[in-house]
Amino acid sequence: MKTPLLLFLLCCLLLSCQVEEEETIQKPSPSKEKLVDLSHDFSKETVYWVTEPDFQLDSGFHGETEKGYYYAANSFCAAEHGGTHIDAPIHFSKTGQTVDQLPLEKLAGPAIKIDIKERALQSPDYLISIEDLMQWESQQGHPIPDQAIILLETGYAKYYGDKKKYLGTINKGPEAVKELHFPGLAPEAAQWLVDERNINAVGIDTPSIDYGQSTHFQSHVILLGQQIPVFENVNLSMKLPAEGFDIMAFPMKIKGGSGAPLRIVARIRE
């Protein structure tokens, strides 16, 4: 009687070990992710539009209090549109959403990067074309994904901090506007994205989605008129793949704001 019982228990043990081994083999390994900050910091070096005042950080109290603990607090003053920031649709659309009205779905999700450095760095007035967008699709073997966030890399992030190279001028005021030179998205390419693709947002590593010499800001009008927010002065000097990453782009929630400082982070799936 003992032998059959021992054989039964031994079979149960072997079966249990086999099931555990199969579960171990089939269990997927945890995915690795890396967070990359795509925001320039805010300081006296921050790039603002030539008609806007520069960022100001005023030191408040720094030191030991009478109760014995250390305390620090500052105040700052900044225009909505400067440094790494967001353009809300109301910026160029009378009926557009303000910063606080933007759906979070527009600001976070799967993203792609379109690299135009080779051409854009050859011309400070380069206009990113439909052909540039379609070339990315040809290289990746599929269209721009639905509801993607598009980042346009011109290579200009490396000039950030050098206003002459980044903006085209070191001057300030209305007269300096005509001296601006940097790449941007061609209006016909912006219209193509609106008509032919379904995107959530567009970001660029220059001061404006429209190139420096624009006077009618048509790409702004086209994109923001369709409730597509724009990220400007994005720090794309950080290495990103062409796709396979997510973006989280959360602005300061300014009620009624036409724009706001932006903290934008890429989550790369490795």
Automatic annotation (TrEMBL):
Residues 1-21 form the signal peptide. GO terms for biological process: L-tryptophan catabolic process to kynurenine. InterPro entries: KFase/CYL, KFase_sf. Keywords: Signal. The keyword Disulfide bond does not apply. Gene3D superfamilies: Putative cyclase. One of its GO terms (molecular function) is arylformamidase activity. PANTHER family: CYCLASE-LIKE PROTEIN 2. This is Cyclase.
